[in-house]
């Protein structure tokens, strides 16, 4: 799958008064009616537990200019508290953080969770969306970040 270029997004949630975030390149549209999207998250990690408990999450699709955010939120073991303060952001209706510089943002409520080996597949119904900025997309291919 390394040859398959994907977009890069940061998925966020808020649980127990703490913001949680992770970089994802497994974001996929599932259905238009109702509007469903999915992403995959590694079992047993902090984000896995937080997003399943919260039941709602946000997605910020990153432009090439936010590669540093993609790298930061992909790093395991990084501190959670205050991590997102490096980038302009706002809270969506769900309470999840959304990045102002994103090419697209959406919020979703978890509709289903499916087994996916060492990951789980989280499917959500889209409750809000927007396109806050323009720019070239950040891509990931062959274990490297690229621009579209």
Automatic annotation (TrEMBL):
Keyword Oxidoreductase assigned: yes
InterPro entries named among the record's database cross-references: Flavin_Rdtase-like_dom (IPR002563), NADH-dep_flavin_reductase (IPR050268), Split_barrel_FMN-bd (IPR012349)
SUPFAM superfamilies assigned to the protein according to its UniProt record, in alphabetical order: FMN-binding split barrel (SSF50475)
Xref: Pfam families: Flavin_Reduct (PF01613)
Flavin reductase like domain mapped to chain residues: 1-147
Gene3D superfamilies: Electron Transport, Fmn-binding Protein, Chain A
Keywords: Oxidoreductase
PANTHER family xref list: FLAVIN REDUCTASE, FMN REDUCTASE (NADH) RUTF
Name assigned to this protein: Flavin reductase family protein
